[in-house]
Amino acid sequence: MDIALLISITALLFLVIAAAEPLAARLSLPYSVILACLGILIGAGAIFFLRTELTDALNPVAEAILALPIRSNVFLYVFLPTLLFQATLGMNVRRMFDDWVPILTLAVVAVFAATLIIGYALSWISSLPLVVCLLVGSIVSTTDPSAVVGIFRSLSAPRRLARIIEGESLLNDAAAIALFGLFMSYVMLGVPNPNIGQAFGQFPMLIGGGVLMGGLVARLALLLMQWFGRYELAQLSVSVAVPYLAYVGAEQLFGASGVIAVVAAGLTLNLAGPGHLSPAFWTNLREVWDLLAHWAGAMIFILAALLIPRLMGEVRPGDYALILVVIVAAFIARALILFVLLPMLSLLRLSPRVERPYRVAILWGGLRGAVTLALALAVTESQNVPVETKRLVGILATGFTLFTLMVQGTTLRWVINKLGLDRLSPLDAALSNQVIAVALQTVREEVATTAESYELTRETVRSEAKRFAGRLDDAVARAESDDNTQILDRDRITLGLIALAGHERETILTRFRERAISARLSERILSDVDRLIEGARIGGRNGYQRAARRSLRYGGTFRFAAFLHNRMHIAGPLARMTADRFEALLAKRLIMRDLHGFVDNRIRRIHGRRVADLLHELLNRRVEAVETALEGLRLQYPGYFEELERRFIRRTALRLEEHEYNAMREDGLVGAELHTALMSDIGRRRQRAEGRPALDLAMRKNELVRQFPLFADLDEGELRRLTRVLRTRYYNAGKIISRKDSPARSVFFVASGAVEQEIAGQTSRLGRGDMFGQMGVLTHRPRRAQITAITPTSLLELDELAFRRVLRRSRALRQAVRDSVSSKAMIEETARMPELKLD
Questions:
Q1: Transmembrane residues, as ranges (predicted)?
Q2: What H or E segment, with its residue span, contains residue 737?
Q3: Which residues lie across from 758 on neighbouring strands?
Q4: Which of these, 242, 264, 132, 134, lies nearest to 187 by C-alpha position?
């Protein structure tokens, strides 16, 4: 094909892509449906003009369109890696991990269920071999969620629901393509009835090899991007190579799933990138990939749609019955997932509860698209597949895709309307009236101030004010109607908490854009805020408080890092995670202090004083919990806390200095050359300020031991020996540290946080510097008390031999043991102990 003609057709396709988005918005149809329709029209038009006798003028263009080098490998090796990689870069992986059970279950089980149900239904109805039927099932089992997710977002559907659908679709594609490759190999080898168990048994190898290759490529790419730190275009070029190297490497070197490799590479870069790359570059990287994915997604859809008239050209009357079987079986498979499996996961509290209208919308919104057509095209291109098999696979996959696009896609918004998902709930409708009334009152005040400042004509101001006053009176009347006054305080509190968390989210994003906090830190605390929003939506005040407590807990990875440090003397992971926790708590404290103003200025005016006061109380509890956790870390690592504060001040000063230089440049006070020099200097100083100081756990534990009054009279040698044998233990709030009647083998010292001690029905609290467990160790009796952490707590643990040795050398510790004894019998027993007779 002539290169000029090929470039011209490509440019025209980009114009079609540009026109599709506003056309979809105008017609209220999914963007993918419009692209498919335009592609089908172009393909059908090219065939028509090539075959018609009306004119030959357009024959060269029609021939060029039909001769476009559209092959399945173009879709699978060029466009698909771009789409998958961008999807993994753009998602909130940490929040996805919270819902990994429903995402993985829905994705993998949905693909397997659709493949088996469609395959066996086709095998039962038709004379096709089972392996061909299963191949068709794997081709049509992948879904394109863009339409339903886009509509859910426009309807303000629960974020967690949209996130689960996105995650399911991403892994859905990976699983479907892996299954396709498996059954395609059986078809080409001529195996008519494969062993299903043996076939699925190869699945772990496909996944494992892909994960290994993808993670390796992403780590190497991250290392390269760090080396090219000063050259942003070089870093972007490295990122473009990542998905393709992962895909080809997994397919060719390991015989594994290239799709899984791309997903693994994207997830690895998503998790590790923000901590190793500058915030500005990370933002630019995601913007570049958003654009690449938009073009790739549109191009793959429109090019695949060009093939539909050709693929459906040999359809026979009996094929329509088989297409109907595929449609019915696919609906049954998806309905089983949505109306059987998903409610079971909700009952087990592994998935959020999804209301029935949403499930119906997801069922009807299960559109198929370019990936299905690309896989069908791969079958039709193969020389090792029988001709009739190629024809049937192409027709069934294409016919099913056309049904989902032209029937489901065009009626999806109508279904949404009939389900009532596009209408405000009574609570939201009542609240909107109050919001409008409050907003209009603020607007009236600001308009009056503006008119007075600019000395506008009184007659004009008076006439406009009269019109505005009428609108305001109507809004106030609606806000004060009986329907609106029936809003329960419980609902107002929930809405207020959601608004408060939403403002907290915007504040974090503002601090990130100002470079006051890093990209890695902002993603972490944004995940915590998302949990606050979802907790408030689902559980109201209690859900909000549970999410707030959860954000301060020591997670499983933190405890594993502590195990590596205590048992294997590997300090790196624990030091890094402790530094992350330190920095996150400091940022949260600074951000939450600014939220009280939002409650007073905004929430109080809409929801009233009582709700605002309660929100202040809940916010104060969060601040107090953060202060407690931060104080515990500050006591353990005092020097490190000061370094983080200094770093924050330096970054704030750099931001303000940069703002001043930019303002002077805009006002013309400094020239372009001077401004460039000033910004370069700020860039160099910012690069130095971005680096986080290293945390030395061993040195800090030594300092912490010196602060304990119980060890004040130990000499330097004893302190060093004590530091080596002390082990750090971390406990979440509510965790039982030791149970009553359990054997006593260790003594614990509270380094930070607080614990509750229950003895004979009486409770007492122990804080920093206190110890417990000493009497059980000394008397060799089971513990008399149950100890429970009441805040995230750090303890120092000393085994029996080390405790007795320290006890013999420390007068202060011996006196503390004596002071801890209350009963007369126990006082007499302790007086006879060898270690306590030394005084």
A1: 30-50, 100-122, 128-149, 170-191, 203-224, 244-271, 291-308, 320-341, 361-380, 392-416
A2: strand 736-738
A3: 763, 786
A4: 132
